[in-house]
Amino acid sequence: MSQGPLVIISGPSGSGKSTIVARLLATCGLPLRLAVSATTRPPRPSEVDGVHYYFWSRERFQDEVAAGAFLEWAEVYGHLYGTLRREVDDPRSRGYGVILEIDVQGAAQVRQQCPDAVAIFIRTSSLDTYAQRLRQRGTEDPAALQRRLAAVCHELDQAPRYDYQVVNDDLEQAVAQVCDIIRRHWQRRDTHAG
Ligand code: 5GP
Question: CA nearest 83: which of 39, 118, 25?
């Protein structure tokens, strides 16, 4: 069986990438898995350890870095986040496509190591939308919210490095576009492998 594709999804906080990924997994009809990342960020009330993230202490995280457990890792908004190799390699070897929902620094690291990954950047057409969505979500305290908003422009600067940019003004349309990109990437890989 050929190895499943690797799909990188990035975008500023408030771009709606987590919602898109959740919808994609539920509706896209492709055998996809989301790699669960490790982080030192404290869990939000709705988040479950091992489902949304592995919530680790900084010490545990750094031990795993030293042990070579991460495909990539980065400090984002003051916390450490990283993709575990086992979350990627196991499902890919079983033919699943694996989605990485990671920041722009992590995406650059993965693309260097896995040039056949497809990288998709999620954005909105208006800058105001990020703040509106983050405030509406209500998961960040005022300082964390400011930190996330301050990073939006830097993250948008990285968008041209991605293979595709998808504008998420309409959720259903954005999900359909991302699904289509992954389907076409998968078909191209299979054609070349065959
Ligand atoms: P949040 O705290 O909102 O869940 O995530 C904050 C940022 O960290 C988002 O841009 C998210 O994509 C990114 N992120 C989540 N997991 C990883 C990871 O494993 N590696 C990297 N580099 N970034 C991650």
Answer: 39
The residues, ordered by sequence, that sit 6+ positions from 73 with a Cβ below 8 Å of its Cβ are: 61, 65, 80, 81, 82, 83, 106
Residue 193 has pLDDT above 80, yes or no: no
Residue 1, domain member (yes or no) = no
| Domain span at 68 | 6-193
What CATH number does residue 155 fall under?
Answer: 3.40.50.300
Partnered with residue 33 across adjacent β-strands are 98
Mean pLDDT for all residues in the chain: 95
Pocket test for ligand 1, best of 53, 103, 105, 120 (most atoms within 8 A of CB): 103
Q: Which residues line ligand 1 (CB under 6 A)?
A: 13, 37, 41, 72, 74, 76-77, 81-83, 101-103, 105-106
Burial class (CB in 10 A: 0-12, 13-18, 19+), 103: buried
How many structural domains are present in the chain? 1
Q: Pairing between strand 38-39 and 32-34?
A: unpaired
Q: Whose CA is nearest to atom 18 of ligand 1?
A: 82
At residue 109, does pLDDT exceed 90? yes
